[in-house]
Amino acid sequence: MINGAELLILILVLALALDIFAGEPPDKVHPVVIMGKSISRFEPYFMKFKNRILSGCLFLISVMLVNTLPVIILLYVLYRPHEIVFLIIFIVIYAFFLKSTFSINSMGKHIKRIITSLENGDMDSARKHTSMVVRRPTGKMDLHSMASASIETIAEGFVDGYLTPLFFFAFFGLAGALIARSVNTMDSNVAYRDTRHYEIGRCTAIGDSIINFFSSRMVPVIFRISAFLLGYGGKKIRIINTTDSLNAGYSIGAMASLLGVSLEKKGEYITNSQGRQPEIEDITRAMNIYYLSSVIFPILFVIPVIVILFALHILIIL
Fold first, then answer.
1. DSSP per-residue codes, 189-251
2. What is the pLDDT of residues 264-305, one digit of tens each?
3. Strand partners, 264
């Protein structure tokens, strides 16, 4: 009989293996796609409230509960550690839902399409693929602008698409990871500054800033270790947050410093302005840092936290 810490570590390794070797599940059963659909269905109802800020908070709480509570109840029913069949089913389902909260494979596929198009000189395809990872207009982007957008996506995506869910998993199990993913998915859907969403999305935007606060500040250290191990030099990290985000400047600034490039979102910010313009090979280097950091973080943080919390009898399986 394996103990609780060993079980969670096994589930974490299985979830990582599922992501690396199997990629994303079909949309029909993908928990994050289902989250997105629940947001779309709930939004009209919460839009009817006069107090949009309050309704936005209730909207966020509803989405978190609907997408987390049923999963936790299901796993609670299945958790029978002394019955091997139930335990195997429990592990597989748990790993599936944990994997759904992060995505290494998908990031690599999206960025690879951009790199390949740029290497082939197919700027139209490169702009099309870049538009799939950023909100900004890509129709007039040149190579350097697309390289910058790609590197920014890699850096920021490592936080909300990988680090934060596993950060909360380490402390609160699957419930923590699912709640973190719910907040991030809500942020992508309603936290806009347009007239329709500004008030109803404020609670979500604040929630997203809160859940990413600590994890975003861990990124410079993790990226620095990865860059060192990859032999990308001993560049000193200088974090000057020129973005309008409370957290994004840490990951983007760290990546810009380590690569020695200037990253720019035209009309909004320039990070590491003294750096050179990014090239295609810088996208590849950023992706290599992303990949290695995805291995380093569980080893240096997630697994030790799980072991310590179980030793202190603080963390529970679910």
1. HH---STTTTTTTHHHHHHHHHHTHHHHHHHHHHHHHHHHHTT---PPP-----SSSSSHHHH
2. 888 788 888 888 999 999 999 999 999 999 999 999 999 999
3. 270
Please, what is the angle between helix 143-158 and helix 248-259, to 10°? 130
Structure tokens of 264? 């720019």
Burial of 21 (0-12, 13-18, 19+ CB in 10 A): exposed
Checking 297-304 for CB contacts under 8 A at 24+ apart, the result is 297/162, 297/163, 297/166, 297/218, 297/222, 298/12, 298/16, 298/166, 300/222, 300/225, 301/167, 301/170, 301/218, 302/12, 302/166, 302/167, 302/169, 302/170, 303/9, 303/12
**What is the residue whose two structure tokens read 């603080």?**
314
* 162-180 per-position pLDDT tens digit: 999 999 999 999 999 999 9
CB atoms near residue 189 (< 10 Å): 17
Q: Which residues contact 155 (CB under 8 A, 6 or more apart)?
A: 219, 223, 251, 252, 254, 255, 256, 286, 290
